[in-house]
């Protein structure tokens, strides 16, 4: 599996390729559970109406739509131009490497990120960047795939995610991309390590939650005072 700059470029090209059918494949392979997970992330932001929220690795804008429906003000940021071109949220869009955000320090109220942590080249650097751009008292809600703690669910998920998802993705979109997705879980540290890294970055109350039996995980936290 690629690392560093090679990984970043491979990820950008992969998402450019799968952008046209990304939403359709997501809905099919998650049985629309992805809509529930995003709504939970927005709810757990616990931000007042009008708050400015960066949606990082925003893809086609699903989270931006949910944020706007919650009366928040999302800004869509993604490395992939193909994904931004397919964004139908109507939010302001910026193509950027989300490890180097074109945003002033302590200038936004929150950050969401959906299913992209494992695609980043340096997770600790990303957490530090979140702490830089979020004002004290601002919030984060970060979703990604998980490894279920229940052995039966973990066994079933390994078969579905490792065999069936690549098959579906190959039929409807790009086979290589959907073979990468189950393997990419290997890039994620353990929940304990990610919570500790967020705390070190400036989110002292960082928490981890399993969603849908651990199929997905959600990291939340509040930017502590400077």
What report would you give on this structure?
The protein has 226 residues and is α/β, with parallel strands linked by helices. The protein has a single domain (4-147, 189-222), classed as Vaccinia Virus protein VP39 (Rossmann fold, 3-Layer(aba) Sandwich), CATH 3.40.50. The chain is built from 9 helices and 7 strands, in the order αααβαβαββαβαααββ. The protein has helices spanning 4-18, 22-30, 33-45, 62-69, 81-86, 123-133, 151-172, 175-183, 191-201; strands spanning 52-56, 73-78, 93-95, 108-114, 134-145, 207-211, 216-222. The chain has a 7-stranded mixed beta sheet with strand order 3-2-1-4-5-7-6, with helices on both faces. Helix 3 packs across helix 4.
Please render the helix and strand layout as text.
Elements: H1 4-18, H2 22-30, H3 33-45, E1 52-56, H4 62-69, E2 73-78, H5 81-86, E3 93-95, E4 108-114, H6 123-133, E5 134-145, H7 151-172, H8 175-183, H9 191-201, E6 207-211, E7 216-222
Parallel strand pairs: 1-2, 1-4, 2-3, 4-5
Antiparallel strand pairs: 5-7, 6-7
Helix pairs in contact: 3-4, 7-8
CATH class placement: Alpha Beta
Bulk shape = globular
Largest beta-sheet characterization: 7 strands, mixed
Radius of gyration: 16 Å
CATH architecture: 3-Layer(aba) Sandwich
Overall domain count: 1
Distance between the termini: 38 Å
Q: State the strand order across the main sheet.
A: 3-2-1-4-5-7-6
* Individual helix count: 9
Could you tell me the CATH topology label.
Rossmann fold
What is the string of helix and strand elements?
HHHEHEHEEHEHHHEE
Q: How much helicity do the residues have?
A: 40-55%
What's the total count of β strands?
7
Portion of residues in beta strands equals: 15-25%
Report the uncertain regions.
Answer: none
| Structural class determined from secondary elements | alpha/beta
Summed over residues and divided by their number, the pLDDT gives a mean of: 92
Q: Output the CATH homologous superfamily.
A: Vaccinia Virus protein VP39
């Amino acid at each position: 599996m690629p690392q560093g700059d090679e990984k970043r470029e491979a990820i950008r090209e992969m998402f450019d390729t799968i952008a046209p059918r990304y939403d359709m494949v997501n809905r099919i392979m998650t049985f629309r559970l992805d809509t529930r997970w995003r709504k939970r992330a927005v709810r757990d932001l616990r931000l007042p109406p009008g708050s400015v929220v960066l949606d990082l690795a925003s893809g086609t804008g699903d989270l931006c739509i949910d944020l706007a429906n919650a009366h928040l003000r999302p800004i869509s940021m993604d490395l992939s131009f193909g994904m931004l071109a397919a964004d139908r949220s109507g939010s302001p869009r910026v193509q950027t490497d989300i490890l180097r955000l074109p945003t002033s320090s302590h200038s936004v109220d929150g950050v969401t990120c959906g299913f992209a942590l494992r695609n980043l080249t340096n997770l600790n650097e990303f957490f530090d960047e979140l702490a830089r751009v979020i004002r004290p008292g601002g919030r984060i809600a970060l979703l990604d795939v998980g490894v279920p703690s229940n052995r039966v669910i973990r066994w079933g998920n390994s078969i579905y995610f490792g065999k069936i998802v690549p098959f579906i993705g190959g039929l409807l979109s790009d086979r290589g991309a959907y073979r990468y997705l189950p393997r990419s879980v290997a890039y994620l540290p353990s929940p304990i390590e990610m919570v500790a890294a967020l705390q070190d970055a400036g989110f002292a109350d960082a928490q981890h939650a399993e969603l849908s039996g651990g199929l997905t995980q959600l990291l939340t936290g509040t930017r502590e005072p400077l």
